[in-house]
């Protein structure tokens, strides 16, 4: 098999094309279309079924996701899943800490009458919630590895002051 969709260099972002003087000779309309997100950036409505802790997490992350352009109204379910998983994880971690502070310390490891030991149900639930939060959070770039694949819509200021830009526009048009 000669090649696949991963063969060759990956395409340069439209901003790099514009900064380098557009060596690929793409039209300005094509470059501008690449800069626009496929789905408009907007905060989805917060579901009314979220727990109080999940609502706090929702409010904490939505503003930053909007600034980065990584959220739309279509993302309600994925974001709600992430927020509930984080809320569950916090609740289970508090319960584990509470149980560990007790005399028998059965928060992380449960000891049976036979002497056998096993991860407590609270630890298992916390691990599951952490896994769900990491999986859903990766969709929004909530880890360094996930952010590497995301493309932020970084706001870019004017490259030239207005006088120079206008002069360059007259020269090249």
Automatic annotation (TrEMBL):
Annotated protein name in UniProt: P27 family phage terminase small subunit
Pfam families: Terminase_4 (PF05119)
Organism: Pseudomonas solani
